[in-house]
Amino acid sequence: MFAKSLISAVILLSAAILSHAQLTSSDSLFIIQLNRTCELNAFQLSAVDTLMKSTAIQLKQLDKELSKVSRSSLSDDDKSTRQNEIRKQKKDAVEGRDMAISFLLDDRQRSIFYDQIKPTKPAVLHMGMNHDRANCNVCVAK
């Protein structure tokens, strides 16, 4: 109960900031897929939308920082190190968002989320250009 109250407070505090955030088409499709497959209630849908927008803002800032580092006069080793740090921050932001989303879901929804929407990566590398883990015969356990 405390967690839902905390999430509600975060939603209210960040509503003004997030009102101008734009989601990418893939993020919008992610929300639509999540809503359809997990049958989200109004609270969950609002919280997921807020989490997605918040992460989008964070990723946009990290992309700007990555671009600045790429154009900077740092040595190649320093650039590479800093770029790797920023990429790790981006990965951590997305993983944090996904963990927060899974926290909002009940057990049935969470199972659907991890089975259909965000399946775990396989140990075998077999990815190509437009690889879709959710529809891959190797990635999705039958």
How do the strands and helices of this protein lay out in sequence?
Blueprint: H1 2-18, H2 25-38, H3 42-71, H4 76-104, H5 107-117
Helix pairs in contact: 1-3, 2-5, 3-4
Features of this protein?
single chain; mainly alpha; 5 helices
Q: Helical amount among residues, as a percent range?
A: over 70%
How large is the radius of gyration? Answer: 17 Å
Number of strands: 0
In DSSP terms (H or I, runs of 4 or more residues), the helix count works out at: 5
Structural class given helices, strands, pairing? mainly alpha
Mean of all residue-level pLDDT scores: 81
- The arrangement of helices and strands along the chain is HHHHH
In whole angstroms, the N-to-C terminal distance is 35 Å
Number of domains: 1
Main β-sheet description: none
Shape: globular
Q: What are the segments in which pLDDT stays under 50 over at least 5 consecutive residues? A: none
How much of the sequence lies in strands comes to: under 5%
Characterization of the model:
The protein is mainly α. It has helices at residues 2-18, 25-38, 42-71, 76-104, 107-117. Helix 1 (2-18) crosses helix 3, helix 2 (25-38) crosses helix 5 (107-117) and helix 3 runs antiparallel to helix 4. It has one domain (24-119, 130-135). The protein contains five helices and no strands.
Q: How would you sum up this structure in a few lines?
A:
With 142 residues, the protein is mainly alpha-helical. The chain contains 5 helices and no strands.
